[in-house]
Every structure is written in C-alpha cells, then in structure tokens.
Amino acid sequence: MASSILSDCSSARLLPLRRALLPQRLPRIRPCPALASPRRLLAAARPQLLPRPPRMDSVPAAAASSAESVTVSADASAKVIDGKLVAKQVREEIAVEVSRMKDAIGIVPGLAVILVGSRKDSQTYVRNKKKACEAVGIKSYEVNLPEDSSEEEVIKHIASFNSDPSVHGILVQLPLPRHMNDENILNAVSIEKDVDGFHPLNIGRLAMQGRDPFFVPCTPKGCMELLHRYGVEIKGKRAVVIGRSNIVGMPAALLLQKANATVSIVHSQTKNPEEITRQADIVIAAVGVANLVRGNWIKSGAAIIDVGINPVDDPESPRGYRLVGDVCYEEASKVAGAITPVPGGVGPMTIAMLLSNTLESAKRIHKFK
Amino acid sequence: MASSILSDCSSARLLPLRRALLPQRLPRIRPCPALASPRRLLAAARPQLLPRPPRMDSVPAAAASSAESVTVSADASAKVIDGKLVAKQVREEIAVEVSRMKDAIGIVPGLAVILVGSRKDSQTYVRNKKKACEAVGIKSYEVNLPEDSSEEEVIKHIASFNSDPSVHGILVQLPLPRHMNDENILNAVSIEKDVDGFHPLNIGRLAMQGRDPFFVPCTPKGCMELLHRYGVEIKGKRAVVIGRSNIVGMPAALLLQKANATVSIVHSQTKNPEEITRQADIVIAAVGVANLVRGNWIKSGAAIIDVGINPVDDPESPRGYRLVGDVCYEEASKVAGAITPVPGGVGPMTIAMLLSNTLESAKRIHKFK
C-alpha cells in the first residue's frame, strides 16, 4: 500500500538529513503505522473550529479569542490547526487596515526587499512576498543586485531605504552570497524598519521583562498567532521548543516565556529530548529533521506547532519528493490535542506576519491607531 | 536549641517576603531539620578542592579547569562552592593583568560610577566597588548627583564618560530616583562601556547563536565562573534557573544555554517548580524568596548556585536579622553535589566580575592581549 510507505515516519528515506542538528542520543526509530497520507488526513480533518480574529494591531498580545478552546482528548484525533485558513484571515484583516489607513491619512505601507544573486528559491520567495504585498494593498519595492556585489553596495541600498519615508519595512533576502558578512548587512537595517525582527536589539528587547521589541520575527510570531487563534492557553503551561535557531527556536522560546509559559529548550546536545518533550502542554518543533518527534514524545492533549519543512523521498510524487515536518504527523495527531499539518500549518503564516509587521511599522511611524 | 531554630527553613519567620515572586502553588512547607547554623556548617566544610584559575581574559568560555570535578554523592555533604575564595583569586589575577597592561602600554583601566541620590545602601555598594577597584589597580571615577537631578543631567555625565578615553566602564548605580526612566538612562551608556551588560543589544547578542555580547552581566557571569572553577560539567546537562529577572535569571539561562545545557526557566507562574527543579543537574536560584528551594526539590548530586540574599528574623544577631539564600542550605547540602553558601557564595563574585568586565573592556579598546 503506497500510502503506508509514504507516511512512514522512519527516517530511513529522508533526503538531506541535517545530522548536525540531531540530538546525540535519538530514541530507536519505530516505523510509523500505516495511514492515509497527511494531505488526505488534513482534508478529512478540516477544522470544525473557525477561529475568530483578534485586532491585527495587537495580534501577539491578544488573549485567546476563539470561541472554543483546545481541550485534551486522548481518543479522538487532534484538531488540525489550519495555518492556511488563519493566514488568509490575517491577510484579509490587513487589507482592511491598509485601506482604512490610506483613506484616513493617505499613507500606504511600503515593504522593500533586497535580493542579492540569482538563487531560484530566493527569487521565488521574493516573488511570493511581492504578490502577497500587492494582494493586501502594501506597496513593494525590490532591488536585485548581482551575485558579485560588494557589501558596501548592499549597505548603500539599505541606507537609501532607511531614509525613504515611503518604506516602512526593509527585508534582505537570505542567504546572502558567501563573500558577505550577514551581521554587517543585517545590522545596517534601521531598527524601526527591521520587519524581520532579526536585529540583536530587537532580540534583546524580546528577552527582557518590561521591554518590547519593535518587531517579532515572523515565523515565531506566526506560531504564537496560531496558538492564540485556536484558544490554546499558554500562561502557566509547560512548553518545549525543539531547536534554538536565531530565527525560530530561540525567539519562539522567548515569546512563550513572555506569555508566562514555563519553557524548556531542547537541542542537539540534549540527552533525553523525548522525555522532556513528553512533559510539554505546548511543543514548537523547529529543528529541521524530518519526523524527529514521534507519537511517544507527546503528552496526551498537547498542542503541537510544527515549523519543520523537510523534503523526503517520494517516488509517487512528480517532483520525486514530498514535504514533511519535524513531527511524525500520523503518530502525533493521535495523541495531541491540536496539531499543525505540513504543509499548510506554520508555512503560510510567515508571509502573513511579514505583512502584519509592515503594517504595524507604518502605523507606528505615522502614529496611526 | 537556638541554632536549630535559626536554621529552620520554614518561611514563617521571613522578613520582607516578596509575594509577587512566589510560585502560585508552593509545596507544603516542612520545618527544616535541627542543624548547626550555616556559618558553622560553612566553616566545617571549607573546600578540600582548590580551584585552579583559568586566564582572566577568557573566563566565561574557559573549560572547567579545576583538577577535580564535582561528582555525585548522595550520602556525603555537598562540596561548598566558596565564592569568597574564588572572588579573591579572580581579584588577584586581575591585579596581575592590570599591572602587566600598565607596564606594557601605559594604560590603566578606568571605571566610572554614577550615583544619584543618597540611599545608604547604594552609597555602601558604590564605596565597595571603589575600594575593590583600588585594590586591583583599576582607576575609579565617581559622580554623585542630588536626588532631584534631571534625567538630562545624568545623561550629560554619561555622555562625558562615553567620550573620555581614560574610562573603560560606566556603571549607573540602581535603583534610580522614581522620577527617572531607567531605560532612557541605561541606554545612554555606550555599548562598548556597558560593563553591567544590561543594554538590550548586549542581551540580544547573548541570546543569539554566533554572536557574542560585549559584556556579560556580572552576577550571572559570576555564577558561571563558579561552575567553571569547580569543574561542574554543563554541556548536555539539565539546568533549571529559578527566576527570570533581567539582571540575573534571564541572562543566566541564556549563558547556560550558550554553554549547551538544556535549560528550563521556573518562575512565578510555574505550577510545579519542585518537580521541574528535581530534574536539574544544575540549579541557579535567583528569585528572592528565602529558603524557597527545599531539599526535596533537588536531584542527588546536583550543583546548586544560590543567588538569593534574603534577610530573615534572628533575635540572636546584633542586627536582629541574618541573611539566607533562596535555597534551604541545611536540607540542600545533604542532597546536592556542590552548593554555594549565603553569604560567601555568589555575592562576592559580582564585584569581582565587574572588575573583570572593566579589565576586558580596557583590553578590547586598546587591543591588548
């Protein structure tokens, strides 16, 4: 049965397995039970719960606003946290706000994207961001520089956008060519326009009590937004973040902590990741290892946010591979209370949060409530 | 027996109990067993293990360098981590380096302290810092401003020290008078001279992989230094930090994480602090609640760093009170592998690390190795 093979959570068939990120002592891998493919599972489980949106200008701080909250249920399948649906809602709310702002003060939020080189994947990401901007009425500016540009040239363009009043957000598409120093370039982005939220000053303010960052990095902000919109209680809960990258794991842990969860961070040096993860009411997996988190890592009823997007071999797919998360969906969805699918979970939220940060920036700069 | 009463870990006799910091569901408090006072215990347990110093300019990153490492021993008493002794060693090493630098390039490190108002405790702290500077050959500069000074006046003095080449570290003594905004004032300190390490840019760099802060906040740096000098292994170990303040708990957690521990942060909203703490090989307690951490919170053989300094009622003391930590020393020292006493543990390390940061700053500014 092809589908049972395709949904096998054993890592034997994984494509580029990032060994550096793997915990040193992984539990013995058991094959995943035969199940329908995640895509079919997802279709069958389309959420009965339609999240109600909070106001966009206070998204991360908004209390859980969905009518129904996620509850523990060991026997039933987990609720599907539908990122595609939420991202669509968020984009619609942003479009309304952009239009309201334009009508009231004549200002249109602007996002500038700088792309260096001609990587196909980066070009696709930039095109998608541009499209998403257009769809909600945000003006986008794009600069394409050749692969062999100097750091100074990139920084010159950043400086120009820093002082351009029609630009409220600046994004440098990563990865940069190898001869460039990411840190020098990202630090050149004005802190008030750093919509990616990667500046260390933003991270520091995120870590500190009594301070707030100008911007929250988009992917972890998207994770929190999903938890909020699906009514997952965070305060006083145990949360485990798997992975500690600067762009997802670490800021996600800081956000959960700011929301008063008791947070543990599991990483490549953790000796018993499954045992620690099993204590968590909320899991955010962002380690980049396909199907790492098995069903027996998960506490019954936990909310699972799967940030991983990993290609695994799939001879039935026209592309020869398909995308799976860091969590073994088939196993986890039987134990968890709520879970994001891959694709269709966190993925669509990242661009939605980029738009949200750009709108927020324009509102702050122009003191528009 | 007076001593048994004095060493009682029940919180009944606590002086200013900071209720806001208490976990919501504290475990039932059992009276501490009758024991000699901590001071006597400490005298009896003076370390058999004499730590060997790493080089001062790479203190926090230095691998454990003590000849003997801390080992698990459930029956024996815990090793005493003697902060007074280590702080003395650190100060001696700094004195040697200051002298070497003066001889080689004619530069003497300088620390500027700004005190606003006339709080007795702040005056004492500032005096102690000045004395400590003098003892190691660091030049100290002091500005005393009246309580009713304006923010602008304080910032003017900071700006003057920022541009003074003989000053390598600037410290604003906290707390500031109520009419001042701490954030505005601390942010005015040049990031290159922020020897307290409280600037959000420093905290952000501390949180991020692949980045290093200019300075590590003194008290958490002191905690790490104690662990290093007593050969406590950190990589791959479970660590729990109790408390999440900007100046101790949060940066301590970031430091442990940078050293590859698996870190959990326990705070006032944590529902089962004792259960989580019991999983830790390393505990840093920095919550400001006398004797909060009982013996049954502690894993056998764990290393315990107690940052708390809390006054408790003591009719036998001439002052009417004595100081105890956040950890019930009498109980914990029977279970732990190593433990800091209060006083004489973390306390003396804070000023030693301030001197270390000032020396480090002067070396960096003058490119002296």
UniProtKB/TrEMBL annotation, chains A, B:
Keyword Magnesium: no
SUPFAM superfamilies: Aminoacid dehydrogenase-like, N-terminal domain, NAD(P)-binding Rossmann-fold domains
Keyword terms of this UniProt record: Hydrolase, Multifunctional enzyme, NADP, One-carbon metabolism, Oxidoreductase, Photorespiration
Transmembrane spans: none
A matching Pfam family: THF_DHG_CYH_C
Residue span(s) of domain Tetrahydrofolate dehydrogenase/cyclohydrolase NAD(P)-binding: 217-364
Catalyzed reaction equations: (6R)-5,10-methylene-5,6,7,8-tetrahydrofolate + NADP(+) = (6R)-5,10-methenyltetrahydrofolate + NADPH; (6R)-5,10-methenyltetrahydrofolate + H2O = (6R)-10-formyltetrahydrofolate + H(+)
Record pathway: One-carbon metabolism; tetrahydrofolate interconversion
Cross-referenced HAMAP family: THF_DHG_CYH
Protein's UniProt name: Uncharacterized protein
Organism: Panicum hallii var. hallii
